[in-house]
Prior knowledge:
The structure holds two protein chains of two kinds. The longest helix of chain A has 31 residues, at 596-626. In chain A, helix 11 packs antiparallel against helix 23. By secondary structure, chain A is an alpha+beta fold. Chain B has helices spanning 12-15, 33-57, 62-83, 86-110, 130-148, 157-175, 180-194, 201-222, 225-235, 244-256, 269-272, 284-316, 321-345, 363-383, 386-390, and strands at residues 112-114, 117-123, 126-128. Chains A and B meet through helix 2, helix 3 and strand 10 of A and helix 10, helix 12 and helix 13 of B.
Amino acid sequence: xxxxxxxxxxxxxxxxxxxxxxxxxxxxxxxxxxxxxxxxxxxxxxxxxxxxxxxxxxxxxxxxxxxxxxxxxxxxxxxxxxxxxxxxxxxxxxxxxxxxxxxxxxxxxxxxxxxxxxxxxxxxxxxxxxxxxxxxxxxxxxxxxxxxxxxxxxxxxxxxxxxxxxxxxxxxxxxxxxxxxxxxxxxxxxxxxxxxxxxxxxxxxxxxxxxxxxxxxxxxxxxxxxxxxxxxxxxxxxxxxxxxxxxxxxxxxxxxxxxxxxxxxxxxxxxxxxxxxxxxxxxxxxxxxxxxxxxxxxxxxxxxxxxxxxxxxxxxxxxxxxxxxxxxxxxxxxxxxxxxxxxxxxxxxxxxxxxxxxxxxxxxxxxxxxxxxxxxxxxxxxxxxxxxxxxxxxxxxxxxxxxxxxxxxxxxxxxxxxxxxxxxxxxxxxxxxxxxxxxxxxxxxxxxxxxxxxxxxxxxxxxxxxxxxxxxxxxxxxxxxxxxxxxxxxxxxxxxxxxxxxxxxxxxxxxxxxxxxxxxxxxxxxxxxxxxxxxxxxxxxxxxxxxxxxxxxxxxxxxxxxxxxxxxxxxxxxxxxxxxxxxxxxxxxxxxxxxxxxxxxxxxxxxxxxxxxxxxxxxxxxxxxxxxxxxxxxxxxxxx
Amino acid sequence: xxxxxxxxxxxxxxxxxxxxxxxxxxxxxxxxxxxxxxxxxxxxxxxxxxxxxxxxxxxxxxxxxxxxxxxxxxxxxxxxxxxxxxxxxxxxxxxxxxxxxxxxxxxxxxxxxxxxxxxxxxxxxxxxxxxxxxxxxxxxxxxxxxxxxxxxxxxxxxxxxxxxxxxxxxxxxxxxxxxxxxxxxxxxxxxxxxxxxxxxxxxxxxxxxxxxxxxxxxxxxxxxxxxxxxxxxxxxxxxxxxxxxxxxxxxxxxxxxxxxxxxxxxxxxxxxxxxxxxxxxxxxxxxxxxxxxxxxxxxxxxxxxxxxxxxxxxxxxxxxxxxxxxxxxxxxxxxxxxxxxxxxxxxxxxxxxxxxxxxxxxxxxxxxxxxxxxxxxxxxxxxxxxxxxxxxxxxxxxxxxxx
Lengths: 640, 403
């Protein structure tokens, strides 16, 4: 047996003794510390842990507020009382839910289901059982608190909706899907979601989620055995508290007053309306109907309500402004006219004879006016919406040449509003038909295309953009809703500038002018189909459209058929005609009041009227407030 | 601790052994007493640790997953104690260290990220923490260094420079993950081994001054904000009330409320109501003391102190310099981890991620701690030449079969 530490030159045996002292000393210090905590201060800490319980309370962050372009609140918050349950403090779950069900007249299964959904989280974390309790319900719960350990009422910020704004644009809030919560949190670790959190599910609420969500805070409170907060004054530490950060505020391009007038003008109709500034793409108002009550999600929707909404044949959940695709009908004639002029198939004076129908081989295509329009030129064809003129023109151009100009004007592709499910629409061509239907294009299919029926599909947003392009002689702006995102204290986070997609210069300004004159005649001429859209003091240009949904038999007319067979009424317009400031596109699907001229044009007229009234009022206010003698250019005076 | 083998100074228990009565016979079997004590304490700690983890895991799968880790750890313990003689570590020390360093580099490049640090390496179905293995590797390299470069004079800084470079490399690789706790433990293990070596006083002074300077530099340029916060939190507990301060507070309440006898198994309210942060890893000592009180803590301390003394006893009677230094290193792994973990939970040390041996959840750590004890046993068995008898492959140190 060698003795390494004795024989070695450099290993020191005495160090073992020193090491022993160091080890004993170190352990002694730890042991004294444990003695200090457990014996000397033990009673104190035992009291803290048993009689007082510290609970971390999450402070939900209020979501950011959405403002309109003039600083009015489009979507704000209002306080709401929620019923929550802390599993840790529940003595008898069955009994507690029984009492709650009786007090609040709700099925007990509702509470059981929510309770089960939150099984995975720690037992001291609250579970939201029911949202938006009435004052009466709150007082009932409060007075029964001694029998309901673990049940609490918590006040949080809820969304307050304006009924004139359709929920498709602003979106709605729903509880975060428990199965997706991990995926969501993987992306934002520093600000995680919890079960029961509300997230934006559609429209701007979903699109702006990361900005307007805010960051939750928390505070630590002490509670007694009944869950009542107790005074922490005897403690020698300060209970932590981190305030919640509200979400960012967003300024939209929407004009609330105009939006409200859109809601009123379009009430009772189904479909979509877009009001846009053709000079920037800013959306001033938009609506999609039929709608539904966004409060349903906040208070909790029943299965029956949800089923009724999803089975509704008019698709209330669908955002028709960007996702609804319709045949453009006669509103498409402006595109065909531009194509004809540019391809020299027609000029301003070339006329065709309309005898009420158009024959192509064995096929006959009727005009909407059975007795015919007589000799029509470009202006009168647009004005009276003569179908036969455009059948001739369509045959002369062919479908591909029409498609070329339709695409150039922004149809057939997404415009990039990035709201909900934007659809691209459809501009049919011969190649497209061969690819999708495996059939060659038949010449007989061209005349319906020329009057906007057949395979053509546009979204209301595209229609507004198309008429904006005609109004501005070819400028296609990217439509946008979000003007500015700023923090609650006013720091700028993001600002969007109008973005020009392109200027369609394959069409000469002179040809735009000819079509504009024709469109002006639609409204301003007494023989025009859209004269119900007139606004006093402003020249309005527009085009009506009525789209047959099904081919009706001769003896039936529009009043006898079911609503889903009725035709779509459309009207697309811009004003003032010579220097456009606003584009209005109205699509009223399955309208029972008549076609575009009778049903959609008055809606557009009402909206345009409100637009110019608001404009004058604001101009007057501005000139009064700043006391400038001449606030705006002279043209503003003409509308008064 | 006296030399038991010194025949003029027998301990009473040794005298009672009948083998001593036979003249001229080497006393071997009674010396294995230290190993037996180590085995006993290890199993006591494992049983305590596993029941405690059962309580801390609160019905999650952590307990069962740790049970699987334990099975592997016990196999590693047996292999280190009974199969591999320590001379093999001597032969392959630099290779083992090199392999661990490569794993550490891999972790830095492509390791799994958890809680802001890159610590895990995934190879097929196996996920492990190479930084835990580095602790053993560092101890081996230090032992090997002193085994090969023996000097008759005290070591000067110049002599220790190669060793410093090797340890420094491992330190930097672990520090980069960033895992300040484990990097520090590795450095401390090497320092513990060095403490038993005669070092030139002047060199020691230079090292201490350099360390102080490096500490200041590290504070301003290397440490992350959260690391600084943890240090400052010891001095100013109210600075970060909501973050680390809150955790420390919950840990004090847990420990303090245990009082003398504790609240009982599975009865710790701080634990069971999930107030306690990192219950099953860093703060598991608080779970134990809450449920088993001052009594439990005292027993725990007693077991660890005994374990460390057994380790030192084995080191003192090592077969050669390598064995002795390695034994010191293995003892240091247990001692340093235990000290840092408990003082951190008791609020005497900044919060760093160092596991409590046999208590904290973690597969690699469990295997590493069991292997360290296995190596200690192997060293004692080797010093009694027991490997010649029981070596399963019957292979000697030079690779030749032993008759």
